[in-house]
Design goal:
The chain is an alpha/beta fold and 175 residues long. It contains five helices and eight strands. It has a five-stranded mixed beta sheet, sandwiched between helices. The longest helix is centred in the C-terminal third of the chain and has 25 residues. The protein is globular. The relative contact order is 0.24.
Length: 175
């Protein structure tokens, strides 16, 4: 799997470029599209921010299985991975925390159940919203510009990068 990007405090705060050697958490996330090329974004009403579906990889779990599980838990949709996009490292020096995220592009099949959100996701007011690729990129860019929270900025920059990577892949296929 290829490196898509390393996000550091330099990107968020403009500080010195520093990397953390030890991975604190593995994540699996990405872009989910439907038959009309609409994208599933997770809207968090408590923060008025959008994120891509995804989350942590459980001990012993395959990253692809983790992403498909997260899609089902957060959106209620069954999906299939159509492309491996790469991985992103988030080096949060202020927190001494490095997250390694496997990134994928998936196609939603059928809605098979109601979302199964965690208590934290429910408190965040998380709901799935489907929108065009252009709309998704626009709300993600707006979120990056308007967010002041340190950790959320990493999440938003990561997800914007994944979305841009997926759009490039989908554009290549359309040609």
């Amino acid at each position: 799997m290829r490196l898509i990007r390393k996000i550091t405090d330099n990107d968020i705060l403009g500080s010195a470029l520093e990397y953390i050697d030890t991975i604190s958490r593995y994540g699996s996330r990405g872009v989910v599209v439907d038959n009309l090329m609409n994208v599933a974004l997770m809207y968090m009403s408590s923060t008025n921010l959008y994120k891509l579906p995804g989350g942590g990889v459980d001990e012993g779990e395959d990253s692809k299985d983790a992403f498909l599980r997260e899609i089902q838990e957060e959106t209620g949709y069954d999906a299939e991975i159509i492309h491996e996009l790469g991985y992103i490292e988030e080096h949060k020096n202020r927190n001494n925390y490095m997250q390694f995220s496997y990134c994928y592009l998936a196609k939603a099949n059928d809605s098979i159940c109601d979302p199964m959100l965690t208590d934290n996701e429910i408190q965040l007011g998380m709901v799935v919203r489907w929108m065009t690729l252009d709309q998704a990129l626009s709300v993600m860019q707006e979120s990056v510009l308007n967010c002041a929270d340190y950790s959320a900025k990493f999440m938003l920059l990561r997800d914007q990068t994944i979305l841009e990577e997926a759009i490039c892949r989908l554009t290549e296929e359309a040609v």
